[in-house]
Amino acid sequence: MINVAVIGASGYTGLELVKILAGHPRFELAYVATSEGGMRLTELHPAMQGIFECDVHKADAAAVAASCELAFLALPHMTAMGFVKELMALGVKVVDLSADYRLKRETYEAHYVPHIDPENLEHAVYGLPELNREAIRSARLVANPGCYPTASILGLLPFTKYIDEDFPVFIDAKSGVSGAGKKCTTSTHFVSINENIFAYKPFEHRHEPEIREKLLLDSGKDFDINFVPHLIPATRGELIDAYALLKEEIDPIAVLKAYYADEPFVRIFENPVDIKACSGTNFCDIYAKVRGKKLYVNSSVDNIVRGSSSQAVANANLMMGLEENTGIPIIAYVP
Amino acid sequence: MINVAVIGASGYTGLELVKILAGHPRFELAYVATSEGGMRLTELHPAMQGIFECDVHKADAAAVAASCELAFLALPHMTAMGFVKELMALGVKVVDLSADYRLKRETYEAHYVPHIDPENLEHAVYGLPELNREAIRSARLVANPGCYPTASILGLLPFTKYIDEDFPVFIDAKSGVSGAGKKCTTSTHFVSINENIFAYKPFEHRHEPEIREKLLLDSGKDFDINFVPHLIPATRGELIDAYALLKEEIDPIAVLKAYYADEPFVRIFENPVDIKACSGTNFCDIYAKVRGKKLYVNSSVDNIVRGSSSQAVANANLMMGLEENTGIPIIAYVP
Amino acid sequence: MINVAVIGASGYTGLELVKILAGHPRFELAYVATSEGGMRLTELHPAMQGIFECDVHKADAAAVAASCELAFLALPHMTAMGFVKELMALGVKVVDLSADYRLKRETYEAHYVPHIDPENLEHAVYGLPELNREAIRSARLVANPGCYPTASILGLLPFTKYIDEDFPVFIDAKSGVSGAGKKCTTSTHFVSINENIFAYKPFEHRHEPEIREKLLLDSGKDFDINFVPHLIPATRGELIDAYALLKEEIDPIAVLKAYYADEPFVRIFENPVDIKACSGTNFCDIYAKVRGKKLYVNSSVDNIVRGSSSQAVANANLMMGLEENTGIPIIAYVP
Amino acid sequence: MINVAVIGASGYTGLELVKILAGHPRFELAYVATSEGGMRLTELHPAMQGIFECDVHKADAAAVAASCELAFLALPHMTAMGFVKELMALGVKVVDLSADYRLKRETYEAHYVPHIDPENLEHAVYGLPELNREAIRSARLVANPGCYPTASILGLLPFTKYIDEDFPVFIDAKSGVSGAGKKCTTSTHFVSINENIFAYKPFEHRHEPEIREKLLLDSGKDFDINFVPHLIPATRGELIDAYALLKEEIDPIAVLKAYYADEPFVRIFENPVDIKACSGTNFCDIYAKVRGKKLYVNSSVDNIVRGSSSQAVANANLMMGLEENTGIPIIAYVP
């Protein structure tokens, strides 16, 4: 058994990590921490009663290093950097779920804050296995992708050679409320979002440069990504609808099937996808359609599972030399 | 037109009051206030754009008295008392939506705090028209009933002469999340309550003594009320299921129809009621069934309309000599 | 009072029509019918108990003509035509809520079936007041717009002179489940759509040619409209997100405000709109943003109110010489 | 591996059975059938794509017997009997999820139809492990309990010796919509039940005699059970609130903890339970409170998991000599 830690266990992603690790056949969840600490896990997450219990510590890098080989960090952006730096210096492998190590330094600093750990940033690997599987295997620090970028990039990757980069790509995204985080705000109050839907930060969301950068790195093409996310009255789940112009006519389903033929965690559907079929799982479900030169790509992930926790564990599996699918959830929360 | 004020306009009840008063044919909404003030109404409630606009003041009793004959107070329990006292001294008629004037002093002080305005408390009238219509007409201060008590009392009143008071009465109540208030808490976060239901404060809710006291005042019988409320994943609405033992067998629908024959805002149904048919309206919908000596009463109100705002406006109509139904909403939010 | 009829009163739109007409100060709802007939209105719609009651007839054109000056038809597409033809021949004015008279004959026949009433089709007026107010006033037959077209057209009209018609316009739409109709299907089963979202008929929805035709008629520009609707887990409401390229840079909010300066039922917002603020009302709420030459338009209507019933009543008001806003709902179903 | 069959795989319970069996370490899902058959599993349940695939047959007892040792039947009440009889005659062990073998013959015939298989009924074992574990181990036919009875009986069992049987026991139950079945009806249409709640069949539900009989068999006391179920706007989950009078004062949490000390699938909570903490799992969560002689019991199960599918698989584990918890889901669908 390989000892692992979860730092930032109180949020939704933290809970999903604990759920996966509690049943993982090779990882032992040996250290759990929040910013405050000082309670038992089942006080934090009553659903774990009868399944898994442990103390929840106040996060301490030395304590992590003393017992664990790898740590999952579910900390806020800009906060994570400091802790990652400490853990890396102590020789702990890290899967960071924040945005702090996902981007090139100039992109990060344009959208967040000055980076305080450029050294580790240099060597961090973007944790999308379908893109970077081999690099992840040998990485000591993996930057877990954002939820919207996961579904957007996986949806668009097969089409980058066909899309006309002289025209904008529009991405209209919809996410369940867990994507907004556990903090109670006006937007996340049940009465505000139930029976409601609205866009937020149109053309201003930080996931936009992440999608753009990764598609550029892979294809060499600097697509003009225009991203508009929405909150929907669901607990979990995320749907991406991307619109672009093609340079040539293609058979989009054939393109998808060829591109992902060997990828067990990407499923191609011949009808529009929904968010329940992959909820609770590591699957990304994709559909696409063309009309003349117009391309429509439709993809879905569970924002706090494949968009976050399960992808992190899949990355950790690769980093620790295990099969990528070890302990990875695949049974959906249906019906 | 009669000038009225709404103090405490930022919450859900405040918004419902503004909605009703904006279209009221005889009341002019002349003064709107919150604890902070300093914005325009449509900043507070964007849905009112194009319908009604005004300044939102920081609540001031003298300012209210200078322009208004009657004020609606939607302030927190225990806070309302101070403001009511001021307004009454200035000659303003008041409909108070808090619990501060609903109960006999000893009941209030047993469940809340020492009462700081026993003089006005003495003369306050409990604002349930089906019980106290005449007293409301001549009242200067009306204490608007709680939402759960409104539906519970209306449901049980017709049966008090038949219920065996030697046996407990159990009330299992269900409310939409607006009943928990606008403040963001763990319970009201969409992710917590969506797809969920749970009881809270079983046998400990402050509405229990209110229900008990009013049934006693009306019937002379001190029923052993045992109240368990629940939150359900709906925005508005409230369902009451009451269980009791009868002293004799009765035809419960006939009893209901006879008791409420002349009450336009109580509707009797011959099947279990739901919360949508009366949502957005001043109706209380009731159904009942017996099996031998066991009585089941099922009643529903919109918790922030009949359970609060519309009942307050109906009370104000009576206090100001208008027809009770003036400007009162009756068209439900269906389908 | 002007006697009016509602034919097809059993569905969601039928119920909304009855709700509006029951409180209309000048229209008397004198004849209500469904395909079967033979019950009382409150059996069909229990929420109307205590508000409005009448017999529900089996639809008969002669009976309508005998008592009513105007009829609202909420019948399925392709069925409506037959009944409209009969009513028009009997001299009844008609507001038809189906698609049967909305389009030019060739467009209609390309997407529906051969038209059996080309004579009346010739003179039918498309019932979007912001476009056709004067023609509606003198019309004997008004074709009420589809729900998605209402919000899409109103959102795009102000921008047609600026949009580059050489580039596709993408419309990503989201609708509450009432838009799918009252018929129980796999998609409308609560368990299917709760906690879910999915696109349907991408690039194949019949509202697409309707949007295209009306924008062409108004602007002379034949935009390449690409429409993808989605179902969301809400009861009512509809959000439109449209993406296009501009020929020049503009201030979109200024454009919207200027275009709709005199339109009381279109509200311009300076932030993304939501579907609750206009739910239950005749308002269309619009927001827009540009980034360089990229245009984002965001508009919302209640699909069964402004997208259907209230717009129909507004049209009838105009046809019968009343003020357009007579009896038109404006208070939203908030919070 | 032990070959098992699922007959009636198209409904919600059928899907949950397939989900559990697809990952079961000792059961091989070797035969899947619906009434019609003739498709592939992933056509029936797209969420299983990439996880499990097989043909779906038209149910045939001989085909089942030819390949399987045990069959799970998820067929409608009254239909199941015929198929069970065939399978038993062919030597197949059966876990029947219908009501057909749960009750004594006279109770069954009083509430359903004449029983056509009294011989097997005689030997059928009621599949509640906490009650009948040993009998289940040696059973050839297990009758899986109803969902409401599972939570009601588990909640009340520890208190039967304390409850005063001279007084009614009231059970107010709430269930997610999956409990109403996959068939589309007025009640299960999203628009009907979203934002809504209502009781149905008050004092008339068939689960009432089941609860009563099992409590009598265990305690010797014939409680006067009065059961009122409700539908709530959630997909899955079930909450029970039971109210009774005690003969003596007790510490209810201590009673629960003692009673269920060795039961891994019953969790005792010291606060009211909710339906999410056990959703997707085989757990039954229970809380209780007393006030004087009044008892309040609050229990929760996932209606289509512990209330159905996972309990069936736990029973099958026992029947086939495996550990009861083999392949049984315990990780909840939280947050």
UniProtKB/TrEMBL annotation, chains A, B, C, D:
User: Which residues does UniProt call coiled coil?
Assistant: none
Q: What Enzyme Commission number(s) appear in the record?
A: 1.2.1.38
The record, for InterPro entries, names: AGPR, AGPR_AS, AGPR_dimerisation_dom, AGPR_type-1, NAD(P)-bd_dom_sf, Semialdehyde_DH_NAD-bd
The record's active-site residues are C147
Q: Does the keyword Amino-acid biosynthesis apply?
A: yes
Output the superkingdom of the source species: Bacteria
Q: Which UniProt keywords apply?
A: Amino-acid biosynthesis, Arginine biosynthesis, Cytoplasm, NADP, Oxidoreductase
**Pfam families for the chain:** Semialdhyde_dh, Semialdhyde_dhC_1
Q: Which residues form the Semialdehyde dehydrogenase NAD-binding domain?
A: 3-139
| Subcellular locations according to the entry | Cytoplasm
Q: Which PROSITE patterns match?
A: ARGC
Signal peptide per UniProt: none
Pathway assignment: Amino-acid biosynthesis; L-arginine biosynthesis; N(2)-acetyl-L-ornithine from L-glutamate: step 3/4
The answer to whether UniProt assigns keyword Amino-acid biosynthesis to this entry is: yes
UniProt GO MF annotations:
N-acetyl-gamma-glutamyl-phosphate reductase activity
UniProt xrefs under SUPFAM superfamilies: Glyceraldehyde-3-phosphate dehydrogenase-like, C-terminal domain, NAD(P)-binding Rossmann-fold domains
Q: Which reaction does it catalyse?
A: N-acetyl-L-glutamate 5-semialdehyde + phosphate + NADP(+) = N-acetyl-L-glutamyl 5-phosphate + NADPH + H(+)
Q: Report the family membership.
A: Belongs to the NAGSA dehydrogenase family. Type 1 subfamily.
What role does it play? Catalyzes the NADPH-dependent reduction of N-acetyl-5-glutamyl phosphate to yield N-acetyl-L-glutamate 5-semialdehyde.
Query: What is the name listed in the Swiss-Prot or TrEMBL entry for this protein?
Result: N-acetyl-gamma-glutamyl-phosphate reductase
* Species for this entry: Sulfurimonas diazotrophicus
